[in-house]
Amino acid sequence: MMGLADLVPGVSGGTIALLSGIYEEFIESLNNLRPKLLNVLKEEGIPTFWKACNGSFLTSVFLGIITSIILFSSLIEYLLSKHQILLFSFFFGVLLVSIVILFKRIISWTISSFSWLLFGAILSFFSTQLIPSSGSISPYYLFFCGFVAISAMILPGLSGAYILLVLGAYGPILSLVNQAKDALIQGEIAPLVYGKLFLFLVGIVMGLLIFSRVIRWFLKHHYAQTMSLLIGLMLGALHKIWPWQIVEEWVIEKKVRYLYSAVWPGNYPHSSQWEWALLFFGMGAATLWGLEIFKNRVNRL
Fold first, then answer.
1. For the segment 212-265, what is each residue's pLDDT rounded down to a tens digit?
2. Phi then psi dihedrals of residue 273, to 5 deg
3. How far apart are the first and last CA of the chain?
């Protein structure tokens, strides 16, 4: 589900990881990926190396993310263009219930915790006010986009997909993924498509390795404040996944940029579909709540 969430602008895969209880292990495992592991592989063999890098865990996480992106990229692209209200309603329910559950996990709230929560909410809110741009992008810009977006993807509340939207790379990258997938299915060779995706993936890897160390340090030395900050980031991002958004097209420095503004269903210029939106909101909320109940039962076994 992390991969599915990362495909939607406004939703963070880090939110799903935090809620499912794998976030800290995920960050710790990424932090352990250091050059010295090559010495472990050389001197002690594959089994010791695999255990040292928590290979089974990381493989399952990344395999799930990659599988979700491959399977659902075309569906998400379609839903974003044809049924955005219903898609955002579902994930709004997911995000809202995530915040409620994580609030309950904080044993005691102090002034310091609330201060960090407020800071996270403000930071997340203003970062999502950046105006997306459109236009062609260079291959090397894809590396930069991968590096920046993955840093946001592993932070709950900051959507890597939205950062790509802001950078003007979301549409092109989603299109590249679909082109690569179609080429593989048809047995065609598309070196330009694969080359661009490779640069994007290199940026992702570099961002993961560097940013995970920063997050791990804060979790280790300032756990309560860090968790409060993460919840605040999620709160500040709620408006960006609000189902009813109007789009204004601006031209700034000869570049087309789009400003998204949240409105009430009654002020939405098209069909609000509020009955269906309410249903999908309930489905999203019930999905997360059901996963939380299931996880708690499994942990008690």
1. 888 888 878 887 788 788 788 778 878 777 889 887 766 656 666 666 778 888
2. 50, 35
3. 24
Could you give the C-alpha distances from 113 to 103, 214, 225, 276, in angstroms and in order?
11, 19, 5, 37
In degrees, rounded to 5, the angle at the alpha carbon of residue 156 between the alpha carbons of residues 150 and 157 is: 100
Distance CA 8, CA 88 (A): 8
Name the pTM for this structure. 0.67
Give pairs for 106-111: CB < 8 Å, separation 24+.
106/224, 106/227, 106/228, 106/231, 109/228, 110/224
What's the domain count of the chain? 1
Q: Which residue do the tokens 């044993």 mark?
A: 107
Closest CA to 197 of 237, 272, 139, 148: 139
Q: In the chain, where does DSSP find H-type helix?
A: 2-6, 13-20, 23-31, 36-44, 46-52, 55-82, 84-105, 111-127, 139-153, 160-166, 170-186, 191-221, 223-236, 274-300
Which among 59, 107, 17, 67 has a CA at the least distance from the CA of 291? 17
User: Do 85 and 243 meet the contact criterion of CB atoms below 8 Å apart?
Assistant: yes
Do residues 161 and 6 lie in contact, with contact meaning Cβ atoms separated by under 8 Å? Answer: yes
- Residue ranges in the chain whose pLDDT is less than 50: none
Q: What one-character DSSP code corresponds to residue 301?
A: -
Task: State which residues form the domain around 190.
Answer: 2-300
Burial of 271 (0-12, 13-18, 19+ CB in 10 A): exposed
- Please state, rounded to an integer, the average pLDDT across all residues of the chain: 78
Name the token pair of 286: 């019930």
CA distance 104 to 291: 16
Burial state string for 197-229 with b = 16 or more CB within 10 A and e = fewer than 16:
bebbeebbeebbeebbeebbeebeeeeebbbbb
